Structures are given as structure tokens and as C-alpha cells.
TrEMBL record:
Gene3D superfamilies linked to this entry: Winged helix-like DNA-binding domain superfamily/Winged helix DNA-binding domain
Name of protein: Response regulator
One Pfam family per UniProt: GerE
InterPro entries, per database record: Sig_transdc_resp-reg_C-effctor (IPR016032), Tscrpt_reg_LuxR_C (IPR000792), WH-like_DNA-bd_sf (IPR036388)
Length: 73
């Protein structure tokens, strides 16, 4: 079985990816994580590069596909 894409992510990256997967925008994420929007934008860009996502929509898809609770379709 292939290793999940998210296995190489840090806990902070997984948390960011989960919030992106929930459909939150930069401002909502910055409020949730108590970080400046600029910081969230930088971290999101780094996450896109790390996962090879072309845009935020692809990050959202990755999050929804790989961060589901066990046993959910």
C-alpha cells in the first residue's frame, strides 16, 4: 500500500491543510491559527510546492481525499 501524501507533513502543515479542506479562506485560517494573513499565505504557498498542487483548489482536494476520518467514504 502506498504511503499517504500527508505522511510527510508536519503537524502544523496537516492543521493548515485540514482548515483549507474545510473551505476556510486566508483570513479565517489566520484567525483560527492566530497568525497574520501574510504568514498563512506563505505557509500555504510552501504547502502547495511540497504537495505539487497547482492552486488552492487542488490543496482542498488533497485535504478532502487524505485527511478524512477513518471509515468515512
Amino acid at each position: 500500500m502506498a504511503r499517504p501524501v500527508t505522511a510527510a507533513l508536519t503537524e502544523a502543515e496537516r492543521a493548515l491543510l485540514a482548515l483549507i479542506g474545510q473551505g476556510l479562506n486566508t483570513l479565517e485560517i489566520s484567525r483560527t491559527l492566530n497568525a497574520k494573513p501574510y504568514t498563512i499565505d506563505r505557509r500555504t504557498a510552501a504547502l502547495r510546492r511540497k504537495l505539487g498542487a497547482a492552486d488552492i483548489a487542488q490543496l482542498r482536494e488533497i485535504a478532502q481525499r487524505h485527511l478524512r476520518a477513518p471509515g468515512t467514504p
